[in-house]
Amino acid sequence: MIDIDYLNFLENILTDNRKEKFLKVLETRTKHFTIAVEDIFQMHNTSAVMRSCEVFGIQELNVIEQRYGKSIDKEIAMGAQKWVDINTFDSITNCVDTLKDKGYQIIATTPHEGDCLMDDFDISKPSALFFGTERDGLSEEILKRADGFLKIPMVGFTESLNISVSAAIIIQNLTSRLRKTNIDWHLSDDEILEKRLAWAKNSIKDIKRIETRYFIDNPKSVL
């Protein structure tokens, strides 16, 4: 449960423009779609995918680190890590199970028998869109457990795109279509409060000192 008094305290430190920007951005955020990347060897590609999530309003990025335990490239992410929730998993199984338990269908973004072109994809169902490695594509486990397959229509000689480019194209297409529907794709009221608190904390320098002082002065408050 969010401590509203604490949230108000932090937001009073922010400028009015900052607070208004938070509310405006949160109106466009969604968890209807979530993105998952699998063992990306070149970490700058994960950072670029995260940036696309932030720009096009996807709130959560799921990163499987089964083989390569690398950190987000903050320079390429350009601050997106402050606004997008990063969920890390140590195995494919754990990631897929968790997303299925949350109600997502698993969609593998790869050409496959029975695949669906991007513009024909049914956006009504909450979907976790999986992107594979640059070198090997998606693993067999994800392909076997996928509920569907999605591909970008291509008309040239080249049969594949860099993962960060593919993710940007698909995320932009699906989120743009989603916002034109009557589907309930917005964050819940509780999720919006959680993000307001997290973003306020991410925006305030020396937040640890301010936070410590607040709870000393308000011992009955809880995070």
UniProtKB/TrEMBL annotation:
- The residues listed in the UniProt record as binding S-adenosyl-L-methionine, with positions renumbered to this chain, are T109, I152, L161
Q: Among its keywords, does the record have Magnesium?
A: no
Q: Which GO terms describe its biological process?
A: methylation
Signal sequence span is none
Pfam families per UniProt: SpoU_methylase
Residues of the tRNA/rRNA methyltransferase SpoU type domain: 33-171
Which family does the record claim for this protein? Belongs to the class IV-like SAM-binding methyltransferase superfamily. RNA methyltransferase TrmH family.
Q: What does this protein do?
A: Catalyzes the 2'-O methylation of guanosine at position 18 in tRNA.
Q: Under what name is this protein listed?
A: tRNA (guanosine(18)-2'-O)-methyltransferase
Per the UniProt entry, what species is this protein from, by scientific name?
Flavobacterium flabelliforme
